[in-house]
């Protein structure tokens, strides 16, 4: 059987030019989030299959790369269900593993715990622009903080990072799952149908208001409920006034404190922000994960044409492990999409040390090679990046290749001139 050169579908090889940007972004993420008090931590890439299939991950649970049992535990001929064959899977996000991690180590961690976790995740999804089956995620989470200070800090930390990467004019879209539920209840939808309603609502940006109305009607919902529901979306605005409008419209159905908290988050972020972006209320924002319990948010960028990050509050997930609910809120940036956009704009890593190539004649004797090695050592000690290479016949082409790799200066060493 012939060996294959290309990576597995949905995976990719990373060339040095991209790797340089990835390494820089990772360093900047760690430095920036550290200034907000986040501590790095890590979880295994393999998670218990019971945790991954706990109905916390929404549609992602259909995309798990599952791992067969090993050795004597794998009894294929005796298996009746998939559970008899599988006991683990590759994590599809970092939130479920973080919740298990916190449940296991809570007594060893500060409260609140501000976690930074970066690592690869895997989803058996259809590959497309900016989406792969293996990709890096970057999450910050605050566990044990019940107030909106968590949401404010997460948004400010994330937007500060994006500002340092020269992203401008992006939008933080924000909503609250409890407002979503109150709007559905006010319109006459039964609680058990909320998930169906929200799945359709989530298509608003693709199919428009009329498309949402048609799909709701196809599901058999009463026209009166559909009309009442969509009338709110027609009248609400994206600013703080929109939050106030729904607080008043949903009086008696929605706890006014939820709307007041959302307004406070928006005001606080807007007053303190140090990057060029806007924060906007979006009542159509749903977020696919079923574990969200309060405020939710996404980053929208026109140059990508979609979301490059998101998060929200998930106060009930850790309780699935411990039996006691723990306040939790997180924000994840789309690392792969951020890197893709930087590559497309020809981003140059700032402050990169000078790069020098020392080209030596073929057959350089040991005593003269030592001179070159000492010269390279001096340059490296001064902070210069140095590579040593044997001269090729086509020296011009060799220098052109090195220039493409970022080498700015060249030194040539010939045997008879040393």
Automatic annotation (TrEMBL):
Its Enzyme Commission number? 6.1.1.21
Any idea what this protein is called?
Histidine--tRNA ligase
Q: What family is reported? A: Belongs to the class-II aminoacyl-tRNA synthetase family.
According to its UniProt record, this protein's enzyme class is: ligase
CDD domains xrefs: HisRS-like_core (cd00773)
- Origin species, per record, is Ruminococcus gauvreauii
GO MF annotations in UniProt: histidine-tRNA ligase activity
One Pfam family from the record: tRNA-synt_His
Task: Report keywords, A-Z.
Answer: ATP-binding, Ligase, Nucleotide-binding, Protein biosynthesis
Which transformation does this protein catalyse, written as a reaction?
tRNA(His) + L-histidine + ATP = L-histidyl-tRNA(His) + AMP + diphosphate + H(+)
Where is each Aminoacyl-transfer RNA synthetases class-II family profile domain found? 10-350
In terms of InterPro entries, this protein maps to: aa-tRNA-synth_II (IPR006195), aa-tRNA-synth_II/BPL/LPL (IPR045864), His-tRNA-ligase (IPR015807), HisRS-like_core (IPR041715), HisRS/HisZ (IPR004516)
Q: Does the keyword Nucleotide-binding apply?
A: yes
- Tell me the leader sequence span: none
What SUPFAM superfamilies is this protein classified in? Class II aaRS and biotin synthetases
Membrane-spanning residues where? none
